[in-house]
Amino acid sequence: MLNRPLADEFGGHFGNYIGLVQTDDVLAQFESNSSLLQALFSGMSEEQALFRYAPGKWSLKEVLGHLADTERVMSYRMMRIARGDTTPLPGFEQDDYIAAANFDGFSVKQLLSDCQAVRAATISLASTIAPDAWLHKGTASNTTMSARAFACVIAGHELHHLNVVRDRYLQS
Could you tell me if residue 1 is inside a domain? Predict the structure, then answer.
């Protein structure tokens, strides 16, 4: 079981995502989130998935793409820190990633499949991290973080966007 990080293992805006994870079993949260994601998006039409709740906001397809991209970045950070790499890791500009990806050109099925593949890779990676390595710390986005903090960031970031989808997209 992978437990939630302590307060000294993360900082900055990452705490907002970690705070959304209400279980001590982060790997179980990964599974729960995957089920929630599938339930929200699997019955959605292509037209519905192009919906934006306001001008300049992402489409639902872009939200799916963003979830996969961000999980890839956070998993990479988690791996580097768990493996003892203390090289500072830069931030990334999510809107630039969205603009370059053309997620609206992919089907909902393709994007969900990508999210599932990324999640399977994250879970596989997590299974190769030794218990003591979860406590290793490094720097990402100018913030000191532990490897296990990034696992919680992955889960909490997804929960954040699932809440936004329910509250702003599906209510419109």
Answer: no
Q: How would you class 36 by CB atoms within 10 Å of its CB: exposed for 0-12, middle for 13-18, buried for 19 or more? A: middle
Residue 93: name the closest of 59, 110, 61, 70 by CA. 70
Distance CA 110, CA 112 (A): 6
d(CA 11, CA 162): 22
Number of domains in the chain: 1
pLDDT digits (tens, 9 = 90+) for 86-119: 999 999 999 999 999 999 999 999 999 999 999 9
Which pTM value belongs to this model? 0.96
- Contact residues for 47 (Cβ-Cβ < 8 A; gap 6+): none
Residue 11 belongs to some domain of the structure = no
* Enclosing domain of residue 154: 25-47+57-169
